[in-house]
Amino acid sequence: MLNLRFYKNTSKVYVGDLYLGERRLLATTHPATIAAAVVALAETELEVRTHKGSTRIGFPVGDSDIALLHGVSDDDEMSHFIDGLAKFSMLLSFPLPWDDQAEIHFRTAVHHLPPELVKVTTDEPAPADFKKQLKKRNQYIYYPDC
Q1: Contact 72, 50 (CB under 8 A)
Q2: CA gyration radius for the chain?
Q3: How many angstroms separate the CA atoms of 108 and 127, rounded?
Q4: CA–CA separation, 79 and 72 (whole Å)
Q5: What average pLDDT score do residues 100-106 get?
Q6: I need a surface site. Which of 24, 58, 64, 98 has the fewest CB within 10 A?
Q7: Start-to-end CA span in the chain (Å)
Q8: Treating both helix axes as pointing N-terminal to C-terminal, what angle do 31-40 and 76-93 enclose, rounded to 10 degrees?
Q9: 49 with 5: CB under 8 angstroms?
Q10: What is the pLDDT of residue 146?
Q11: DSSP 8-class letter at 135
Q12: Phi/psi-derived region of residue 6, left when phi > 0, alpha when psi is between -120 and 50, beta in every other case
């Protein structure tokens, strides 16, 4: 099962650290990229672990799961990350055709995940400026090293 852990970087910003069992997959400060990774891995459950405890939620994140997540949130800053994760889980699971930012987060996640684990990809060619967008997004990726 996928599990999401958190730590703070040197700027005291939360990093979401995604694992499959004990295998580290992706660490980023952007909740949209974590949500995109869960979608790319075709997972429907996620365990969220914090210093206050852990909880299992469905994916995409439903309203009842948001309350569970806030129950294990360490502080307001982590709650902000969790709110973003919930919002982006819906936007990435049910993408809007004109939402090019969701596509960039999805492609960024797929780019960094181990290829053998990715179950959902896109058939569309990458946007012409994807390499530029990826370089921009990589500043928020902590693992794997960019």
Answers
A1: yes
A2: 14
A3: 12
A4: 9
A5: 90
A6: 98
A7: 25
A8: 40
A9: yes
A10: 60
A11: H
A12: beta
Distance of CA 8 to CAs 39, 74, 78, 111, Å?
Answer: 24, 12, 10, 24
- pLDDT > 90? residue 29: yes
**Mind listing the pLDDT tens digit for each residue in 66-89?**
999 999 999 999 999 999 999 999
What's the CA gap between 77 and 130, in Å, rounded? 30
Please write down the HEC assignment for all residues of 29-97.
CCHHHHHHHHHHCCCCEEEEEECCEEEEEECCCCHHHHHHHHHHCCCHHHHHHHHHHHHHHHHHHCCCC
Task: For residue 20, list its beta bridge partners.
Answer: 2, 23
User: Three-state SS for 119?
Assistant: coil
Which residues, other chains included, contact 91 with Cβ-Cβ below 8 Å and sequence gap of 6+? 32, 35, 99, 102
Q: Tokens at residue 94, please? A: 């049910």
Angle between helices 76-93 and 63-72 in degrees, nearest 10: 150
